[in-house]
């Protein structure tokens, strides 16, 4: 039997986890996906179940994690990630970032595996400087609605660094900025699926506040490449991976309206509490250390993503028609 490297990917049925499974399968790893399906969907990885070098464990990583056999790498991507999700399940979000990370650090230590954790630009909170370099400590409200996510991720970084320093564990920390692409959930509340869903349903696009807040959107393939390089580098400090092409949410809505050709309008709803006013990664380190920078422009990435959502909506409509027909 071939001596493949073995990698555990938590959050495997989610948006990013499923793309990471695909990438490591392509690189000929043995991939062990783990997920409790709280926000994920097995459809994202069902194409992998037939492969010999893929296995799936339905498990909540906030409880003790057992994986038989050797492990070379662990990617910890399990966590609710959209504001809608983590506001609905705040305690599980805190637990997976803290207890879940602790379990995976223990597993990595026992297996002598290298662990990469998925951190986030949210560790910078509502940042006072723009763009955000890794040295910036952030401006976070621990008891605001986003605190359950932001502080779980900050604790996750702290405990990962502690295992690295005190146990000599091989660790990597990626700070991911807003990422988009196929397999996002149409109803996960994040701005891109929200806007595309509204446009496709012929509804007005719901912009929060006056839309002057900014984000910088990275296409998923670029992110996966950055993570792959970081995992195989020898850099153990936090690293930003994201696309520095910054845009206001109003302009972003206008782009989606133009792209979908649906002629919808933008309407303004109240801005949620602690919504960051600006967000843009400083990727100087990723460029210098990983020789990485994003390659996919927003117009290219949005076209691919729109086609995915169109196909998904058509499939769902066909299912609905079929169900009606069979009643
Ligand atoms: P997602 O919700 O699509 O995927 C998360 C997956 O984790 C889901 O499949 C969910 O079922 C699983 N999960 C949650 N809690 C679990 C638990 N206790 N045990 C096992 N599985 C569990 O979200 P995503 O966008 O793919 O995000 C993945 C990771 O990347 C998260 O850690 C998130 O914080 C981080 N991140 C994502 C973005 C982004 O733009 N997508 C930005 C910053 C950070
Ligand atoms: N947003 C919006 N309309 C929506 C969803 C989100 O205007 O239907 C805004 C939100 O207030 C934020 C930005 O879009 O300023 C990005 O929100 P998202 O939830 O995608 O991610 P965040 O970066 O805030 O975690």
From TrEMBL:
Q: Does the keyword Nucleus apply?
A: no
Subcellular compartments: Golgi apparatus, Golgi stack membrane
Q: What's the cofactor?
A: NAD(+)
Q: Which pathway, per its entry?
A: Nucleotide-sugar biosynthesis; UDP-alpha-D-xylose biosynthesis; UDP-alpha-D-xylose from UDP-alpha-D-glucuronate: step 1/1
The family database entries (InterPro entries) matched by this protein are listed as: NAD(P)-bd_dom, NAD(P)-bd_dom_sf, UXS-like
GO CC term, one of those recorded: cytoplasm
Q: Which residues form the NAD(P)-binding domain?
A: 8-304
Q: Which GO terms describe its molecular function?
A: NAD+ binding; UDP-glucuronate decarboxylase activity
The answer, when asked if Transmembrane is one of the entry's keywords, is yes
What is its EC class?
lyase
Sorted alphabetically, the Gene Ontology BP terms of this entry are:
D-xylose metabolic process; UDP-D-xylose biosynthetic process
Q: What is its EC number?
A: 4.1.1.35
Annotated membrane topology is: Single-pass type II membrane protein
**SUPFAM superfamilies per UniProt:** NAD(P)-binding Rossmann-fold domains
Write out the entry's keywords from A to Z: Decarboxylase, Glycoprotein, Golgi apparatus, Lyase, Membrane, NAD, Signal-anchor, Transmembrane, Transmembrane helix
Family label:
Belongs to the NAD(P)-dependent epimerase/dehydratase family. UDP-glucuronic acid decarboxylase subfamily.
Q: What name does UniProt use for this protein?
A: UDP-glucuronate decarboxylase
What species was this sequence derived from?
Mucilaginibacter celer
- Please name the taxonomic classification of the source: Bacteria, Pseudomonadati, Bacteroidota, Sphingobacteriia, Sphingobacteriales
């Amino acid at each position: 039997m071939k001596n493949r490297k073995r990698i555990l990917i938590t959050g495997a049925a989610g948006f990013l986890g499923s793309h990471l499974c695909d990438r490591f399968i392509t690189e000929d790893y043995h991939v062990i996906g783990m997920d409790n399906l709280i926000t994920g969907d097995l459809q994202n990885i069902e194409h992998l179940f037939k492969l010999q070098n893929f296995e799936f464990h339905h498990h909540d990583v906030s409880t003790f994690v057992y994986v038989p056999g050797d492990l070379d790498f662990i990617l910890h991507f399990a966590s609710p990630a959209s504001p809608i999700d983590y506001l609905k399940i705040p305690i599980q979000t805190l637990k997976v970032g803290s207890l879940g990370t602790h379990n995976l650090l223990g597993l990595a230590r026992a297996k002598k595996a290298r662990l990469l954790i998925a951190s986030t630009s949210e560790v910078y909170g509502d940042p006072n400087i723009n763009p955000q370099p890794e040295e910036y400590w952030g401006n976070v409200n621990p008891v605001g609605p986003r605190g359950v996510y932001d502080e779980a991720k900050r604790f996750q970084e702290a405990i990962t660094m502690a295992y690295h320093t005190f146990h000599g564990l091989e660790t990597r920390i990626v700070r991911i900025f807003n990422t988009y692409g196929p397999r996002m959930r149409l109803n996960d509340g994040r701005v891109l699926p929200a806007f595309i869903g509204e446009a496709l349903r012929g509804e007005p696009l719901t912009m929060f506040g006056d839309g002057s807040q900014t984000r910088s959107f990275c296409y998923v393939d670029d992110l996966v490449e950055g993570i792959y390089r970081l995992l195989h580098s020898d850099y153990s400090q936090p690293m930003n991976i994201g696309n520095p092409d910054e845009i206001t949410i109003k302009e972003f809505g206008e782009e989606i309206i133009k792209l979908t050709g649906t002629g919808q309008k933008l309407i303004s709803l109240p801005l949620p509490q602690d919504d960051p006013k600006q967000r843009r990664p400083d990727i100087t380190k990723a460029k210098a250390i990983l020789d990485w920078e994003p390659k996919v422009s927003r117009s290219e990435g949005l076209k691919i993503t729109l086609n995915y959502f169109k196909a998904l909506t058509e499939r769902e409509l066909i299912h609905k028609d079929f169900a009606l027909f069979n009643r």
